[in-house]
Amino acid sequence: MVDVEKLREIAREVVSREDVRQLIGYRQGTYGFRARPAFITSPEEVDQLIFSPACVNNLATYLTLEERLPVPRGQEPDLRKVAVMVKGCDSRALVQQMEEKAYERDRIVVLGIPCTGVVDMDKVEKRFPNVLSRGEIALEGDKFVLSFDGKREEVPKEELLADKCKRCRYPTPLVYDQLLDEEVSRFADDDYADVLALEKRSAEEKWAYWEEKFSRCIRCYSCRNVCPMCYCEDCVLDRLNPQWMRRSVDISETTAYHIARAYHLAGRCIQCGECQRVCPVEIPLMELNRKFYKDVEELYDYEPGTDAEAPPLLATFKVDDREDFIL
Amino acid sequence: MAEKNSDFEPNIVAFLCNWCSYAGADLAGTSRIQYPSNVRVIRVMCSGRVNPLFVMNALQQGADGVLISGCHPGDCHYMQGNYYARRRFMLMRNFLEYLGVEPERVRMSWVSASEGAKWKEVIEEVVSGVKSVGPMNKFQRRQLNW
Amino acid sequence: MAVKKLNKDKVKEALQELTKFRLIAPAKSDEVVVFKQISDPEEAFLDYGNSTVPPKKVVFPQTETLFRFQRGNPELREKNVEEEGTTVIFGLRPCDARAMSIVDNLFSWDYEDPYYLKRRELTTLVGMGCVNPPSVNCFCTSVGGEPCGTENLDILLIDLGEGYLVRELTEKGKKLAETIGSFLEDAPGGSEAKAEELSGSAKEAVSRSIDTSGIEAKLPTLWESPLWKEVSAACLGCGICTYLCPTCHCFDIQDEVEGAEGRRCRMWDSCMFRAHTLHASGPNPRPARKERTRNRINHKYSYFPGKFGVIACVGCGRCINLCPVNIDILEILGKVVEA
Questions:
Q1: Torsion of CA C52, C227, A26, C331, to 10 degrees
Q2: Is this prediction's pTM over 0.80?
């Protein structure tokens, strides 16, 4: 567990630096067990910072999300660094962003959090519904301890752990300037059981499965917006000419949207699971992303977000890539 | 489905590279080689030009199958375009299969400018493959509805 | 008004009877509750908190065709909403019903929208009172509603345990109640009192609140406040808060052409999207998330009440529950009050 006092101390140091503009971390949410992003610009605000298994957000998204607006005449653009707190999975987003030259390494300060797993907030709220007062979640051994309304509840880790954490290969950040705790060694792996099971079904069954899911989609684009890898300034979805995906919402356009979204993440998705977490209608988007992840690993022996020096998967090739499907 | 649609004539959209496959298809024509007439050809400069969105969009707009054809590895006019295309469509094909689009609908081939006869074989194979899985009935745009 | 009761063992039969109309009811799609047209009463899932997507989509569909056109043919074929037939929305929450009456203001304002208004006319709303407020983030009582409110409903059902108390509120409601009259029985004495008691306790159970009295006047004074940058810093710019809001009603109009034929359609749009205000020539008057968040709050709590005298928020709590980064409209309003 990260010692919050130590975290705040380090954060205070970082925010006080002259070459750092802001620090992106976590703070308590507005109700229940929620935590939310915090944007710290002065040492006085540092005491808001927390880290707990409720800190689910991938903050790497914010590095590419912030608008770069024109600077008023006579003013200089603020080019100071941004500091960011990342868990193991989140750090892979930084690696992948840097692999794609989204920014240079020296533009960011990374506070790495060796992570023992975060909760799935849906599971927590299902188990403890209607908690309004602010509660806390901590991991003690193999149990999550939830304290709220003067009560203390223990739940086996397995039952509240986010699914992505059950498949996590990199709990310790792959890139950091300071590590906030002892390294955590790999405690899980992905066996792709659900992807393999779906692959075995017939074409009709597969389509029936996805048609049900996609037909719920309301195209709020939260899966795109939350994704740290979706940072094109001019997204193909917003283009009107050519308009690859129409704005009208029906099964055809929605399927097209999901194909385009998932394909754009082929060899880029770093398995942080944010898209599936934020989806209000619970479309299992990670089953799409992990299909690519699995294929990319099997076919090209490539794992996104692990090596900032490697060339992006689809911007490179090997002469002997598999081609048995070609006539 | 194939039995039910024995008279089903599929629509197949083929993206052919300018330098090899388009010339190969042309050779088939000038050599008077007969092959199924289900193919609608779109010429692109290189198989590496084919955006996976083209495939998705063709299927949406009523194609029952899509073929992408380029130069043999090593022969690309632009040195590497077909290698990139190969990676791209390997993944695309697997992914569409995962969504329930039969792999017979998304095909890729290498046809050189001298392979008029191979072009015929490729088309026969693609057409019979698409015929075996029947019309595209998944995420194509329905007739414009109210 | 007549007081009747619909026993729970008769609900399925009553719903079966109602399928002769276009019947929309809450149903499960995997674990998600959605309002959809049902033809089999078994599909209905009445024991629910609230739906993820509000039933506004029934009268204001996410995508709707306005008219169709053909190349070379100057005639436009207009959509005839009447063809959709009489619609019954069964089991919607009072807040979502109230939201429709708020949206009505807009669609019957300077221009009377024939599509929307026709659909509203054809739709009968059968509400299901919230005996237990479905979420901790409900705050309907702060914005003029209540858990068992009757505003804009044609019939209100209140769950008394073994059956629903049926309150017929309008002529439309009375007519609908007649069609399922054979499944209704007279409510035993004291039912009305019990329902009153339940709605009273439900009101007490609404846990969050905000004093909205000064907000409309105060918001314009906070235009340049640093507050907006602060509350929008975490915003992802997605459409969850607006698409899932029962009162949000922004739309876009686009032409879709297929060969020589095409249609003009209207689809939901969200003020949280960059493209919402992007001009064709390039500039964007709401260039960042700060301006978009400010607009969302101002529209709901200042512009709309200024124009129509009612806050464009019914306190359903969806935007709080489902925001991926825990942006909380009550917190923002609290800051507005304090500022």
A1: -40
A2: yes
